[in-house]
Amino acid sequence: LRHYNGTAWADVSPAAAALTSADLPAGSVLQVQYASKSGAVSSTGSYVDAMGAEYITITKIAGSDIYIHWSTQVSKAGAGGIYTGGSKIIRATDTGFTANVTELPASSTIASTTQPNGSIGYNYSGTIHVGQWSHTTIDTTITASALTYYYKWQFTSGSSVTVNTDSGVGIMVAMEIKT
Hints:
The protein is mainly beta.
């Protein structure tokens, strides 16, 4: 077994201690978690859990950040564009999402925790508008050492909007990245 120690490749004896995150360079992916949801979820003006009961569970170490991405197919019946009131990624320390709840901004350059929002790209087909919608961020706000966190994403709309539409599948991925 060989690993890169930051300056050169080094041999690791099978009898040696197990490879740990301390042996890996910054930017290494330490773990990946994934959740998916098929079946439509609709909002008519209030925030709803876009993945239903699905959420991501990740236990991080000190010295790492969490990269989060979600993506789904979105649709709106009727005339006009697809307008969303907002989307947000929520982090908590319990599965009920009641303890230490934090809403995460889409990026460090966007202060709002409810974006992306507005008009979503779509193709107009008869009376149905269909498009792809996604959100990516890096959670750099956690300073605690090893602790388990739970992530989910929610959306709202000014008018009836559906995600995971037409047999679409919504996905959410979280990756722990060594800093």
